[in-house]
Amino acid sequence: xxxxxxxxxxxxxxxxxxxxxxxxxxxxxxxxxxxxxxxxxxxxxxxxxxxxxxxxxxxxxxxxxxxxxxxxxxxxxxxxxxxxxxxxxxxxxxxxxxxxxxxxxxxxxxxxxxxxxxxxxxx
Length: 123
Ligand SMILES: [Zn+2]
Known about the structure:
This protein is mainly alpha-helical. The chain has one domain. The chain has helices at residues 6-38, 44-80, and strands spanning 4-5, 94-95, 101-105, 112-116.
């Protein structure tokens, strides 16, 4: 599997999380547009259809925000423990993408530690 330098990986995680955030905002605009264009004063089938559409878009907003927040906080949590405890070098190790646990090995002093996953923080 291809490995990335930590800094590059962290940057990608942030871009990905902001893509979720932008999607969330677009879904928010869609939500407001539905209310604006159809309104909640209609009756019968149109009213039920509007409510169903708002419900689905509302769930999408919550899910998209959850994804943004999860990936953003994960990236920030990883960055906060990316400094080698032995030599103090920041982010000088490689990351295997799409794994929740990062096995960090400092390229300067060969110190090993684990980031993320079940046992968070270093060592
Ligand atoms: Zn080190």
